[in-house]
Amino acid sequence: MQQTENQSSLPWQERSWNIGTATNVRSGKRAVGLIEHGTYADGTPLQSPVHVLVGAQEGPVLYVQAAVHGNEVNGVEVLRRVASSLDPELMRGVLIVVPVANGPALLMRQRHNPFDKEDMNRVWPGKLGGMASQQMAYSLYQQAIHQAQYVVDLHTANSNTLLHVVYGRGDEASRKLAEVFGLEVLLEENVDDDLKQSRFLGKLRNTLTAQGVPAITPELGGSDHFEEDHIVLGVRGVLNVMKHLGMLQGAIEPPDRPQITLYGSHLDRVRASLGGIWVAQVKGGDQVKQGQLLGHVYAIRTFETVEQIFAPYDGYILGTSDLPIVNTGDNLVNLCRLDDN
Ligand SMILES: [Zn+2]
Prior knowledge:
Blueprint: E1 16-19, E2 22-26, E3 30-39, E4 45-54, E5 57-65, H1 74-85, E6 92-98, H2 103-107, H3 132-143, E7 150-153, E8 164-168, H4 172-181, E9 185-189, H5 193-197, H6 204-209, E10 215-219, H7 228-244, E11 260-263, E12 269-271, E13 276-280, E14 287-288, E15 293-298, E16 305-310, E17 315-320, E18 325-326, E19 331-336
Parallel strand pairs: 5-6, 5-7, 7-10, 8-9, 9-11
Antiparallel strand pairs: 1-2, 3-4, 4-6, 8-10, 12-19, 13-15, 13-18, 14-17, 15-16, 17-19
Bound molecules: zinc ion (ZN).
């Protein structure tokens, strides 16, 4: 049974919430349930856990998920700390938490869904009868996400990339969420033809903002390992968003340094033409001029430099590859622009 449309006329204390198998959750209560996707070959249920916290007072519905890429574990721990720390009696609105959106990828400690080798963050809002990732996205979307008025999709990039929050160009409500999340770098993304070719419209954030639902993508450091400093910033960010939306009382905690806005996307990359071993000479946070040396690639057979990498335009280094072993075409530097031209 879906809700809330048919219940929105009821007083808050008389409404009940149904999200996956978490049913009849009332104001001031919390519940843990499952979003059912299907089964593994051996019959084990394929599910995503969902935590539902219904505030004692009326307020907005916020959906927060992590690990749609299975190896991006900082967000999982962020959501455990957030959900565990909250008392629904002291909240307004509803918080829906899915700590692991992509269970099969988590099991394999990898980004992609092992069933269909798909990037689950390119297939939103999913498809009934589609491939595994599409079906999982569909059930999450239908049973949980579509009930939300605001969405935070927690990700990680790599350990050499500055923490940042991505939002869609021209979407002021999302921009505001990104600001209050409180990281020092904001990345304003414009889904142009290039990004459409890379299926960026199938990202959860872009699917939602196209429907007028404010959504942000915080990128909280590296994958595979817990990074305590970044987890702390992620917890602060989610709680800041809840304070901004009036779901929690208290002052929003600002970033330690003034925020900077970059324009572009994660595909604003400088890539290797020739393979070898990559040595960066810049790092995240550096500002560079067109033509400036960013690093070099050397040959393991001779130790000679096979390629020097220069900045193709003026910009700001969002991050560099943390993988020294590079083949032709591999990403070396994520170089974003500081103005929107
Ligand atoms: Zn990700």
